[in-house]
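FIELD: query
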Amino acid sequence: MQNKISEVLLQNWDYAMDTEDWAPPLSDALEGVTAEQAVWKPGEAGNSIWETVNHLTYYKERLLRKLKGLPKLPDLESNDATFTVTESGEEAWTQAVTKLKSVHASLREIIEALEEGAYDWGGSGHAPGEEVMSLILHDCYHTGQIVLIRKLQGSWPSTRSFN
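FIELD: result
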């Protein structure tokens, strides 16, 4: 049986990836994006959609490993290194999006199992519930960037219908 905390976390976790709320979810922001569109950058200082997807996947996978008690991902030299793309082509792009969604779904299963103590944490760092909420906000922030990139490149629909 779920508690109120996990219900709220799950609802917002779903808003971030799959369910339209105040803003488009990440799955909608990525819908129909080609590899060519995914590597396009809005300028020298901006990241591409693909770089952003890899960045999101890195932090989701990092939390997933932590909550499952698995070995940590190798530390990178900086946050900027999480925005790296080393492959190209439609198949590699599809795999990047698939991995993002798969890690997101795996984390959802863990969130579903969080108990009332999700915000009580005896270890170092943040409690699991805090880390999940932080990733939700992180997803929303970067989803907005992806939508803006798509608007700049002309690949975002001029009108959208949603419920």
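FIELD: remark
The chain has a mean pLDDT of 90.
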